[in-house]
Amino acid sequence: MNEDTIKLLKEVNSGCKSGTNSMEQVMPIVKDEQLKAIIKKYNDIHIKLGDECHALLNKVDKDEKDPSAMAKAMSWISTEMKLMINDDANRVAELMVDGCNMGIKSLSQYINKYKAATPESIDLARRLVRIEQDFMNELLPYL
User: How many Å apart are CA 15 and CA 99, to the nearest integer?
Assistant: First the structure.
């Protein structure tokens, strides 16, 4: 497994973790059952894809990448502050859509940056981009 493949897989894995961290943070406060079901569905999908990345990294004895502690803390604080002001379905959907946009942007940049990555790892990254796009599309009616 070449270096670009390892780096891309680590970024995909980190993106999955960032997504699940955000979704699990908002789940307890979501009152709308349909919205909660959508978030749970995509949380499960992110976990499964993250597990695939982790398994590929384990094959070559490489550690997965966690989101940085600072990024994680800032995201958590920002989300908590925004939800203290307004925790309705619209606000939750807005936060999740913002996260999808960030994920799509960063993953697309990594796909373009790590051009020598294997087709399998590029496919995983593209799958996560599609998942983020699908998630965002399901959230749009709540905005």
Answer: 10
